[in-house]
Design goal:
Elements (H helix, E strand, L loop, with lengths): L7 E5 L2 E5 L9 H11 L6 H13 L2 E6 L2 E5 L10 E4 H9 L16 E2 L2 E2 L10 H17 L3 H6 L15 H21 L13 H16 L6 H5 L3 H23 L1
Antiparallel strand pairs: 1-2, 3-4, 4-5, 6-7
Helix pairs in contact: 1-2, 1-6, 2-3, 4-7
């Protein structure tokens, strides 16, 4: 059994070749939704999740389990399709090729559309800073109580949808969470001084204070500059805040000496 780059299967004589993705970038939006549907299942283990994703991405239909392994087919008409026996160790080895799904992604992972609405730039380039602050407040609230309402409120800000309501499927809703999780993971690497380790969950007052502190740092305490700061490009605003946090950290070091 071979594993390569895209999500297809091929046949060579009596051999079955599974062609699997190597990164999130290899997945289509439809395939990402399959992945999000499985990752969002309650209580699912990583091993089982990867096996289910393998089956889903390859279009594999499990016909039966035998002492030797699994009998599978790759056709909608699976009763008459060609059957293949895959040993259990081979199936688990193939699933491990998808282990990149369990690691923090190197770049933000988002869908090109939420429903019928195009989404924003994955890094929020060209997006007003106030949009970032609003979405991050909803994200932190979701981490605190796991109420999907926060993700529903957050979703319209990430695309061109009319606010405040959108109809999203479970996988699409999970994609909103995963996008922001992967975005914050990326930002933590790109802006290490700004996104220093902090408590995983914040109270509503903490979230408001955090947003206020960011705005104050950029306005220098001048309330007249608030509107202009809120309109700043998100990426540029975070880069400036990271530089200010670096300077503050260096100043503290000097004072301690």
């Amino acid at each position: 059994m071979k594993t390569k780059k895209k999500t297809r299967h091929t046949f060579s004589g009596c051999s079955l070749n599974l062609i699997l993705p190597r990164s999130w970038a290899d997945l289509t939006d439809s395939e990402k939704c399959h992945v999000f549907r499985i990752l969002s299942m309650d209580g699912i283990t990583l091993t089982r999740a990867l096996l289910l994703i393998l089956v889903s991405l390859t279009g594999m239909r499990v016909i039966a389990r035998t002492p030797q392994g699994w009998t599978v087919a790759f056709s909608p008409c699976w009763l008459t399709a060609r059957k293949h026996l895959i040993r259990t160790c081979e199936l688990h080895a193939a699933a491990q090729a998808l282990s990149f799904l369990a690691a923090p992604p190197p770049a933000p992972v988002s869908l090109r559309k939420l429903g019928r609405y195009p989404t924003l730039h994955p890094l929020l380039r060209g997006v007003p800073f106030i949009t970032y602050l609003t979405c991050d407040n909803h994200y932190q609230a979701y981490l605190k109580d796991h109420d999907p309402r926060h993700l529903r409120l957050m979703a319209p800000f990430l695309c061109s949808a009319p606010r405040p309501r959108m109809r999203l499927s479970g996988p699409q809703l999970y994609s909103v969470f995963y996008w922001w999780y992967s975005l914050k993971t990326y930002y933590a690497r790109r802006f290490p001084y700004l996104f220093a380790p902090a408590p995983q969950t914040l109270s509503p007052s903490d979230m408001d204070d955090n947003a206020h502190a960011m705005l104050r740092a950029l306005t220098g305490g001048d309330i007249l500059k608030k509107q202009a700061v809120c309109s700043l490009d998100t990426y540029d605003a975070l880069r400036e805040l990271n530089e200010k946090a670096r300077e503050a950290q260096e100043l503290k070091r000097r004072i301690k000496k």
